[in-house]
Amino acid sequence: METELVWDDSVAPETCVDFDAPHVSTSDVLLSFLSGLGFFGAVYFLAYLSDPVKNRPVAPRSAIISNESFMYSMGFDVSKEAMIKMGFEVTDADNDEED
What we know:
The protein is mainly alpha-helical.
């Protein structure tokens, strides 16, 4: 055995790679490993089937306020057509400001 694979802390030297289960065959190890992967795959698939995005209790912003209204409330300049669509009255004073 290589000396670099031995952990020696001055108490009890031991190998870094444990060989505690030589009675477990490679096929048993492979079966256990694939079973674990299968379990997490099944959990992922069940989460995918439940469609968590569709069942979320929070409404998207677009269902509550239109994009134009949001842009206007954030202080961005919005076109007259968008302001009319939002329900704001566009006066002649608004027309003079743009010219």
